[in-house]
Amino acid sequence: MDIYKLIDKVIEREGGYSNHPADRGGETNWGITHRVARANGFRGDMRLLSREKAVRIYRSIYWDAPEFDKVAERAPALARELFDTAVNMGAATASGFLQRALNALNRNGRDFSDITVDRQIGPRTLAALNAFMDTRGANAESVLLKAVEALQGAKYLRLAESRPANEAFLYGWLANRIGH
Questions:
Q1: Is pLDDT at 12 greater than 70 in this prediction?
Q2: Is the model's pLDDT at 163 over the cut of 90?
């Protein structure tokens, strides 16, 4: 799996500089928010955030740090979705979706024990993923991916219902974030 191709696709969807009045993230460039850029050492005008710096941020905090590269070794389509979800909702949220889905799909602990939903990918989450994939066979990744996407879609709907200004983004979130 080429993380840089995934990053290119995200940057293509996100576009360049934006400062939408309804977006709580404020200024963004290449999809990187002002807060994330500052937390990763960028101090300039957001319009000047380089694409190269954005790529380094995406790789570091949305792929390497949450260990989605380890998920990709066993389930590349799932890892792609976790990465994209992390970009839009945070790595902890994406990781939590995976953990919740694994727990719900373990047939009441018959296939593997429940894991703690600590919103971090670690040895227990990876072991549960491996057990799920081994037990469920050829369609396992597809089914797990659908479960993660369902959780993602439900969160988008809750965000729009809880804050009317988010309705400006709901269509795009559903059209461009789920299944990419």
A1: yes
A2: no
